[in-house]
Amino acid sequence: MFSIERWQEIFEGLFKNKLRTVLTGVSVASGIFILVILLGAGNGIQNGIQKQFEQDAVNRISVWPGITQKEYNGLGIGREIQLHNSDYNTTIRLLSDYIEYKSAVYSVWSGNMVFKNETGTYRVEGVHPDYQFIENASVAKGRFLNQADITNYEKHVVIGQKVADDLFKGEEELLGQELNISGTIYKVIGVFTDPGGEREESRVYIPISTAQRAYSAGDKIRSLVFTLKKNVDFDNAVAESHDFTQKLETFLRARHTIAPDDQGALHINNSLDQAKNIYIITGGVKGFFWFVGICTIIAGVVGVGNIMLIIVKERTKEIGIRKALGASPFSIISMILQEAVFITVVAGFSGLVAGLLVWEFVGPSIETDFFTHPEVDFNVAITTLAILVVAGAFAGFVPAYRAAKIRPIIALRGD
C-alpha cells in the first residue's frame, strides 16, 4: 500500500546524508554500468564473428590437395596430389544424400584483365553454377553461370562489383561488354556482390570447363567445395558434416593412394567445426563477462547492505519507539527493505541507462571486422532490472531483520 509518509521519511534520510547516499549509489550504478558494457562487448564480438561466417555458407566444406609427407604403398614423399573432374563427379554421385550445393573450382590468382584503356589484375575462378550459393553471392545485374555455359564451353564471365567499378568506369550498360582476360575475350553476363566486400568482389567467375580449356589444364581442378543440406539442430548438423567429411576423406585417400595419417597430402576445411569452436569461445567470453559484471554488482550490493546496517544503528531509538507504539515486525522490515530497494534500483537504473547510451553513441565508431553492433537487447535489460530488485531486497534484508528483532526497552536505553 502506498504511503506518502513513508516516502517522505526515505527522502529525508537520503538528503540528510547526501555524501553517503551518493557514494552508495555510485557503487551500485558502476556495477550495472560495467555489466552492460561487458555484455555489449560480448555481443559485439559474437556479432562480428557471425558476420564473418555470413560471407560464405556456414555449412561449407572445402577440399584441396597438397604434397605427400609420408611414404605409402611404395610411393615416396613429396608427391603432388592432383584432383580431376572424375574426383568431383564420383564424389557427388557417392555422397549425394548429404550435398545441397556443389562445385569444383579451377582458380587463377592473377588474371590480367583489359577493358578499353583500363587494366587490372584480379582472381579468376572457373566454377559450377552452384558456386553462387556457396559464396552467398547476389547477382546485382544480369545472371550467374548456368549448366549450358559449362556444357557449351561458353566464354561468359560474371564480374565482381569491385572489378566493375575499376574497369568499367562510366559505362552505363555492362552486360554484353567484352572483357579481355589473359588474352581471351569473354562476354559479361552478370555482376555480383558479396557479403565479404571488396576482397570477395575483386574476382570474376567463368565456366569451369572454359577455364580448364583457356588455361590448358585438361581435366584438372584446384579444389572441391560443398555445402550440406540444412539441419535445424546444430549438433546434428555438426555430426552429419563429420560423417560426410570422413567418407569424403576416406574416398579421396584411397583414390589417390594417400597414407591415412598423412596430413599434408589432403586438406579438408569444415566451417561448421570452426563455427562450433568459435561459438563455444564466444559463449565462454560472454559467460566470463556476466561473472565479472555480477561480481561487481555484488560489491555494490554489499555496500548498500553496510549502509543500511549503519542506518539501522542510527535509527535504533526511532525503531524502538515505533515498536513500543505497536509497529509490527513486518512494517519495520518493509520500511528498511523499501529504502534499500529504492537506492539500489534508482542507482542501478542510472548505470543501466548510462551503459546503453555509451553503446548507442560510441558503439558505431568502434566497429571492426570482428566487432560489430555492440548492443544489449531488451530482454537482457529487463533481466538486469530484475537482478537490481532482487539485489536491493537482499541488501536490505539482513539490516531489516535485525531492526525487526530490536526490543523496544533495549532500544530506548541505547545512546
UniProtKB/TrEMBL annotation:
The record's InterPro entries line, in alphabetical order, gives: ABC3_permease_C (IPR003838), MacB_PCD (IPR025857), Macrolide_Exporter_MacB (IPR050250)
Every copy of the MacB-like periplasmic core domain together lies at 21-240
Q: Where in the cell is it found?
A: Cell membrane
Query: Keyword Transmembrane on this protein?
Result: yes
Family statement: Belongs to the ABC-4 integral membrane protein family.
PANTHER family the UniProt entry points to:
ABC TRANSPORTER PERMEASE YTRF, MEMBRANE COMPONENT OF TRANSPORTER-RELATED
Q: What is this protein called?
A: ABC transporter ATP-binding protein
Look up and give the organism this protein is from: Sphingobacterium paucimobilis HER1398
